[in-house]
Amino acid sequence: MSDRLAVRHSDPFAALPGGIGVSRLRVYDTVAPDGVVGGTPHVHLCCTEGYVVTDGEGAVQTLTADGCRETPLRPGAVVWFRPGTVHRLVNGGGLTIVVLMQNSGLPEAGDAVLTFPPEVLADPDAYAAAVALPDGGAPGADVRAAYRRRDLAVTGFQALRAGGPAALAAFHDAALALRRPLLADWRRRWAAGAGRAAAGTGEQLDALERGDACHLGEARVYAVDEPVERGRLGMCGLLDTYPATG
Q: Which of 9, 130, 194, 235 fits as disulfide partner to 19, beta carbons 3.0 to 4.6 Å?
C-alpha cells in the first residue's frame, strides 16, 4: 500500500488537490447559552473553509465587515468563505458536512481563533487554558469540555455581533497578536504543502510548454480506505479525520 496518502509525504502530488484538507463533521446537537443548537464560533486567519452538506439541515452564521448573515445548509448545498469570516454552525437536525480546508496543515497548527471575550484573547495563557480539551480532543474524550469552550466563545460572539465593525476589527487585531508567534511555523507548513502543490503545477506547465510530457508517465493513484479517527472533538462537532497532508 505504498500509494497511501499517509505514507507518501515525500511526493508533493500525494496531497489532496490544491493542498486542501478534508474531514467529515457531525455538528454538535446541544444548546448554547443563547438558545442556539450548534458549534463554536471562530475565525481562520489564513484559510478559506468550504462545506458540502451531506445530511440533515441547519445554517452557518457568519460575521464580516459587511455585517451578520445566516446561510441555510441542506443536503447538496456547497458554501465557502474567506479568512476573517467569523462563523458558527447551527444544527437544525442531523447536520452532517464534508469540510474542505485550504492549506492542509495550517488549521491543525492553530490557524483558528475562537471568539472568546477580549480579556481571554489578550492573555495567551488564559486563551490556551480556555481552548484546551482533555487528551487534545481525541476520540472518547469528555465532550462536555468542548461544550464549555463553545459556550464561552458564544458569549464573545454575541458581543461581537452587537459591537459592529469596530468590535470585529478589534477581534481581528487580537487574533493576530495571539497567533503572531506561530507565523514562521505556518509559513514553513504552507511552503511544504499547499505552496509546493501550486509550484508543482507551475513546473508541469513549464514542462508542457517545452514539449516535455514526462511527468504524465509518473501518474499514481492514491486512496485512504477510511478515516484515521472517528469522533474527534472539533470546534463545531464530532470529526472523522483523514491523514494530514500539509
A: 194
C-alpha cell at 202: 507551475
The whole-angstrom separation of Cα 61 and Cα 43 is 12
Q: For residues 131 and 32, what is the distance between their CA atoms, to the nearest angstrom? A: 16
Q: Report the residue count for the chain.
A: 246
- pLDDT, tens digit, 9 for 90 and up, residues 104-151: 999 999 999 999 999 999 999 999 999 999 999 999 999 999 999 999
What SS3 state is found at 96? strand
Nearest 5°: the CA angle 232, 116, 70 is 75
| Nearest C-alpha neighbor of 124 from the set 136, 110, 138 | 110
pLDDT digits (tens, 9 = 90+) for 156-200: 999 999 999 999 999 999 999 999 999 999 999 999 999 998 999
Count of CB atoms situated within 10 Å of the CB of 81:
18
d(CA 173, CA 158): 18
- For residue 182 the three cell numbers come to 506561530
Three-class DSSP category at 186: helix
H or E stretch at 63 = strand 49-64
3-state secondary structure of 5: helix
